Amino acid sequence: MDKDLRVAVIGAGMGGLACALALAKQGFTHIDVYEAASNLGFVGAGIQLAPNMARILDRLGCWADVEKEAVDLKDTSIRRGTSDDELAHVDMQYIRKTYGYPHSVGHRSSLASALFQGCKRESGITFHFSTKVEQVQSYIPKAVFQVKPRDGEPYTVEADLILAADGVKSNMRSQILKALGVNANVEDTGQAAYRIMLKREEMEHDPELLALIDGNKATRWVGEKRHIIAYPVSSKQIYNIATTQPDTNFAAAPSATYTTKGSKVDMLRIYADFCPMIQRMLNLVPDNEVCEWKLRGHSPLPTWVHGVIALVGDACHPTLPHLAQGAAQAIEDAAVLGVVLSKCPDAMPQSINKSLRVYYKVRKERTQTLVDLAAASGRTLHLGEGAAREERDKQFEALKTGKGVMPDKWVDAEVQKMIYGHDCMKVAAEDFERLFKEL
To answer: How big is the chain by its Cα radius of gyration, in Å?
Structure first.
């Protein structure tokens, strides 16, 4: 394979940065990254750094920088939101010994910065910020597309392949599906999320809250149609809080709207029946720092590939946050693309297309399984009064004696084995030749 191929990456989110870096590490020397925003722009939010992600980051030379500020989770507590009674406790310390990396949590900007700095160390990667990719004019034999700089005239770019990591609102996905005559609509999950970060100095006056930020623990408080998950990040200087609740503020909004300035009054009302400690915690949030995200997905796609263009991450498999695998799966996509493109036998468009289709075959079943598992776990966590919740709570209770099934799939040992024990790069390398021949 000619490593001087012209590669265009659309989007400088986690998936796009990882794509650029993964290809550079495989020896590709001409990678252009196009990002509509003027900078990386990752707002304050925590992110879970599971072993399957850490393994790839380590191979990309980024993990050491991320790990410096990450908090190694020792355990997880699942609690009833209204009373703070513990439903289940899970020891997470076995994860490092079993999978070679801990289950850590960190700041989203730390991960983005580590990937970006890794990219900047590679001479073959060039960034084009404030540059929007617009219309695709050709999908094969070359990818030809128009870009529009924010302060300049549109121009046309020709590339040997495009990796479109442009998110759940992917313009590239819309164009590919239209070209294929396929209808796969954005789906409304009916859920929204508050993302909050409290500083240590805001919590340290309250002994119960101080214990939360001082611990190596993730805590999930569950209630009817709602839950909160929280954990310390940034060397325990920040406490990250993420909620999920029914969407009310976005229901009448245009489909393009994904974030809004949230109301502290509304947030406190939604969680008004949760325990006093949570009330004190949420009351610490400054009035002007409540942001709400709409959680959207889309129906499964029949393909992620058209010509020499492939979709990556949320552009093709957006995942609800209940398994904490959204960014990890985008990074896995990038790692697999690095492997399959490095193994592509030549630079012919047909060979590039087949290699991208191998990527799809390697990734499709795994990502769809996790999309479905995350949705199912959310439904279980959000059960209201009734027989189903009683059965769920019996399962939680049985776990205290070492029996039964974990209702919260994020901390289920068998699910963790399936997610954390999977080496996507090894699978891609081992299966490439067979899958390529079958196409």
So the answer is: 22
